[in-house]
């Protein structure tokens, strides 16, 4: 019997861990359960940032924000105050992001209402000129300039140096991106948070969340 106990204990511990793990990640019934991490935020780097470097964050909160006895989960005072874990990592813009030809090839994007609308200009690959549009205040695209002169200074020399096939492709790209903008689509997607595959299994959320086990006799 003495040699059988460690085996039985190990099996029981695995079942307990499996049960508690699924309670934490599926129905959040375990004490101090945390919701899944959010999707990563967009990288906050700009084309003016050194080496195009920046940071992005994701967050994770308690399933029950007012639950007591969970302070040990939060390493910083700010995280403890908000009951939210915050993970930060360095990110870098892809090289093509700050390519002037790529920026000028985007279609005009008005953005979303946020404060006062402002007049702006964008480079039109179809007209090979800078045309006016109204910027609504939030988000929008990068092919946006405060004046026609700034737009022409930035885009015209770059575009004129491109081969004809590339300029034609820019016109097609602008048409496609403007269509996406008009339908409300955006290239800044916030992907769904992945769920643990175990969450799709049937789980009894009471004391037993694993099916009964047939113990062998030792």
From TrEMBL:
PROSITE patterns: BPTI_KUNITZ_1, BPTI_KUNITZ_2, TSP1. Residues 1-21 form the signal peptide. Gene3D superfamilies: Pancreatic trypsin inhibitor Kunitz domain, Thrombospondin type-1 (TSP1) repeat. One of its GO terms (molecular function) is serine-type endopeptidase inhibitor activity. InterPro entries: Kunitz_BPTI, Kunitz_BPTI_sf, Prtase_inh_Kunz-CS, TSP1_rpt, TSP1_rpt_sf. Keywords: Signal. Residues 104-155 form the BPTI/Kunitz inhibitor domain. Pfam families: Kunitz_BPTI, TSP_1. Residues 178-218 are annotated as: Disordered. Residues 204-218 have a biased composition (Acidic residues). This is BPTI/Kunitz inhibitor domain-containing protein.
């Amino acid at each position: 019997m003495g040699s059988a106990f460690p085996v039985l204990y190990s099996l029981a511990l695995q079942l307990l861990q499996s049960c508690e793990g699924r309670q934490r990640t599926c129905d959040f019934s375990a004490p101090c359960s945390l919701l899944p991490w959010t999707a990563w935020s967009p990288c906050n780097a700009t084309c003016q940032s050194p080496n195009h470097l920046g940071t992005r964050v994701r967050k994770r909160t308690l399933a029950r924000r007012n639950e007591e006895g969970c302070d040990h989960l939060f390493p910083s005072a700010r995280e403890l105050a908000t009951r939210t874990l915050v993970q930060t990592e360095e990110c870098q813009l892809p090289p093509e992001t700050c390519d002037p030809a790529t920026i000028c090839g985007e279609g005009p994007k008005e953005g979303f209402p946020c404060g006062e609308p402002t007049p702006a200009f964008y480079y039109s690959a179809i007209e090979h000129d800078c045309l006016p549009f109204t910027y609504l205040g939030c988000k929008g695209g990068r092919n946006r300039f405060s004046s026609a002169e700034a737009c022409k200074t930035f885009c015209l020399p770059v575009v004129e140096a491109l081969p004809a096939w590339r300029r034609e492709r820019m016109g097609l790209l602008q048409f496609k991106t403007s269509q996406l903008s008009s339908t409300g689509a955006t290239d800044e997607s916030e992907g769904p948070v992945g769920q643990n595959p175990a969450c799709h299994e049937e789980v009894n959320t009471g004391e037993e969340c694993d099916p009964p086990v047939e113990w062998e006799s030792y």
